[in-house]
Design goal:
Blueprint lengths: L3 E2 L4 E6 L5 E7 L9 H11 L17 E4 L1 E2 L2 E2 L4 E6 L6 H4 L11 H8 L16 H16 L4 E9 L2 E2 L9 H6 L7 H16 L6 E8 L13 H10 L4 E6 L10 H4 L3 E4 L2 E4 L7 E2 L2 E2 L4 E7 L9 E4 L6 E4 L10 H22 L9
The structure holds flavin mononucleotide.
The site of flavin mononucleotide (FMN) has 21 residues, from helix 9.
């Protein structure tokens, strides 16, 4: 339960961190979408850890296998099942923490829900590795959206207390991917790298913020009142492990603004109605308003750290000083950038299908 998202473009996630494989089934992709395995693979490659940016030492090949739904380089209209085999799982370090839940992780809540049957190895279903499947689905969604000219780009805007202020023209996928921390502001990126290296030395971790922008989204996407565009986007973002907050446009800063500051004033650009500012983040009344969609997603510092932390041995009731072993990202943010982009793509694709903007057969 709870492993699927979407109404017309339905993505079902499966697999565990140290199980045999991880993947997704995408149901609802129209027939005739040209899609190469290399295009799905390149999304997986973007998500791979880079040790220079605080990425885990776990080295997974993450080669996508497409089991169904794509024939001769195009979608058939049938469910697309995609997976990657886990090849570098080392469950040894986890045996030790079965009875001593890691502070900040999902070990304890998973135990409450699934009891002794929970697959605790490597965080099981709660691992960041499940997002390998998310980016496979995103690769398909992104291609479908591109048919309508919709483009999505995400980038790192904060790590720790270091904030980026990139020039808007630098926020492109190409430029973002040149930076190991996926930050389009070169000076800030250097400082972020340094900070990550420092916390790593202290056997600690650090959090940050990813911003995602969606361009050329037509107005009117979204469904009032429960399936609002920002509601469904938030749901998809909160499916990414370690997400602690989401804001759109001016977001939480709106609390300190007056109506005259927050209202986006209308204007005409040629024949198109635009707004002079975008405090709404491209969404009004749960519907896209034709301006770029802008969301910021907060990631907490990685829970699994080497630094000694207090936990409890659930068998003996005794307190335990835990230093988490295993291989962990000391900063999740750089790896989360493509995941955020792809989850945004999945939701926008679902709404574009609901609105009939994408047809059932791609001609
Ligand atoms: C790409 C990615 C990689 C992650 N890597 C780790 C990791 O190495 N160690 C860890 O403790 N948590 C990692 N996480 C986060 C945990 O999975 C997450 O914090 C945990 O499941 C608890 O869920 P919550 O933080 O959403 O409450 C990662 C998350 C993502 C998106």
């Amino acid at each position: 339960m709870g492993n699927s998202i979407g109404s017309q473009f339905i993505v079902t996630s499966f697999g565990e961190s140290h199980g045999r494989c991880l993947g997704v089934v995408v149901d609802g992709c129209p027939a005739g979408l040209p899609i190469g395995i290399d295009e799905i693979q390149s999304e997986l490659d973007r998500r791979k850890p880079q040790s220079s940016a605080g990425g885990t030492g776990r080295r997974e090949e993450d080669r996508v296998e497409v089991l169904s739904g794509i024939l001769n380089g195009a979608s058939t209209g049938a469910p697309i099942c995609m997976l990657a085999w886990n090849k570098d799982a080392d469950s040894g370090a986890y045996q030790e923490i079965v009875n001593t839940p890691r502070p900040g992780h999902a070990d304890y809540t998973a135990l409450l829900k699934y009891g002794k049957y929970n697959d605790f190895r490597g965080g099981g279903r709660f691992s960041g590795r499940i997002t390998a499947g998310f980016v496979m689905a995103g690769a398909i969604a992104r291609k479908l959206l591109a048919l309508s000219g919709i483009e999505i780009v995400a980038h790192t805007v904060q790590i720790g207390d270091i904030k980026a202020s990139p020039h808007p023209s630098d926020i492109t996928r190409k430029k973002v991917d040149k930076s190991a921390v996926r930050c389009a502001d070169t000076a800030a990126a250097g400082k972020m790298m340094k900070l990550i290296a420092e916390v790593q030395k202290q056997a600690d971790s650090i959090g940050g913020i990813v911003e995602v922008l969606a361009f050329n989204v037509p107005g009117g996407l979204g469904e009032p009142v429960f399936d609002t565009l920002e509601g469904e986007l938030s749901k998809a973002f909160f499916a990414i492990p370690a997400v602690r907050g989401v804001e759109f446009g001016a977001g939480f800063a709106a609390a300190a603004m007056q109506g005259s500051q927050h209202n986006d004033l209308f204007s005409l650009s040629g024949k198109k109605l635009v707004t002079l500012t975008n405090n709404a983040g491209g969404i009004s009344g749960g519907l896209s308003n034709g301006m770029p969609i802008v969301a910021r997603i907060v990631f907490k510092p990685t829970a699994s750290i080497g630094k000694i932390q207090r936990t409890v041995d659930l068998k003996t009731g005794k307190k335990v000083d835990l230093s988490v072993k295993g291989r962990h990202d000391s900063c999740i943010v750089p790896r989360a950038v493509p995941v955020v982009e792809d989850m945004a793509a999945v939701v926008l694709c679902d709404f574009a299908l609901r609105a009939g903007i994408i047809g059932r057969i791609i001609k």
